[in-house]
Amino acid sequence: MKIEAAVVHEVNGPYLIEEVELAAPRADEVLVKVSASGICHTDVGAQKGDFGNIFPIVLGHEGSGVVMEAGSGVKEFKPGDRVAMSFSWCGECPACSTGRSWGCSRLYDLNFAGHDYYGGTPLSRNGERVSCFFGQSSFASHAVVHKNNLVRVPDGMDLRIAAPVGCGIQTGAGSVLNYLRPVPGNGIVVSGCGGVGMSALMAARLCGCDPIVAVDVVDSRLELALELGATRAVNAKRENPVQAVHELTGGRGVEYAVECSGIGECIRTAVNCTGAFGVIAVCGAAYDLRINFHEEVTAMHRTLTGIIEGHSNPKLFIPKLLSFYEKGLFPIDKLIKFYDFKDIEQAVEDSVQGIALKPVLVMGS
Ligand SMILES: [Zn+2]
Ligand SMILES: [Zn+2]
Q1: How far is the CA of 39 from the centre of ligand 1 (A)?
Q2: Which of 78, 195, 275, 311 is the most exposed place for a label (fewest CB within 10 A)?
Q3: Domains and CATH numbers, the chain
Q4: Could you tell me which residue ranges the Enoyl reductase (ER) domain spans (predicted)?
């Protein structure tokens, strides 16, 4: 069928909304009419070709929508079902077989390599191959998605708000709720208060963490962090976060840190905000880190680890987050700014500039 999609034709090229051909769903796939899609920093990186992406490509990996058609092998979804889309996982490798889909051995292959589960792509334009992304390519009016990627969204839940839960929000919240699992009274530092960091912070408040220290360099973000549950905000341009945390904790440091900026120096700062036996979860895509590993990690019995997709099994974790939202415990709407699909360039720009914490493109109802 003919659909509308935002196509990026080359590295750093603009998003051009064009007519594209979308193949029919196969046995294990579902055709979804896209309602909305969040924009994640991974989309911004892919537009620059950071992941070796093959162009032209349709990006977008935080989609939501309504099922129009389900393949013969799909029992879980039927036309009319409201769904959110998350990342691709194979379901067969050792990690997937043991319930750890976030560690799927085909994670890169299925999400970044430009093809779907079957090695092809459902997208083409004038007979030319167009790469897909995360098995979704949700910057489009419609998407063909494997059943593994899909999670049902309850009636009454706004699909525009459910959309970004599929990646950024579950990454931040999952790093706290699935991996760190603090108990009430544990202290935590959240470094980098974008969409992922704010989600980690809201999860820390759900767990009863105290203190919750938000670290960023933008005052407006820190104000929102305080509104969402931070007990102390530190602007790292004006104040040393390690010193601030030590003053708050009688010199002991906090139990946990979540680092979302992806900047090596900030990871090192987050490490040193924790005390002995501290655990530091790094969610941002960081490439270089200079640290005295013996003094700052080993001798302090600290654990420094990287987290992908918040150690989340989306089919189990996303419904939990949506129910927290519905109960008023997880106000993700405070992070979201809506844009018409046609304004995708502006939405991406606002995301890069930090004007919008979590831009969400709206394709339809
Ligand atoms: Zn797998
Ligand atoms: Zn993402």
Answers
A1: 25
A2: 78
A3: 2-166+331-362 (3.90.180.10), 172-308 (3.40.50.720)
A4: 9-357
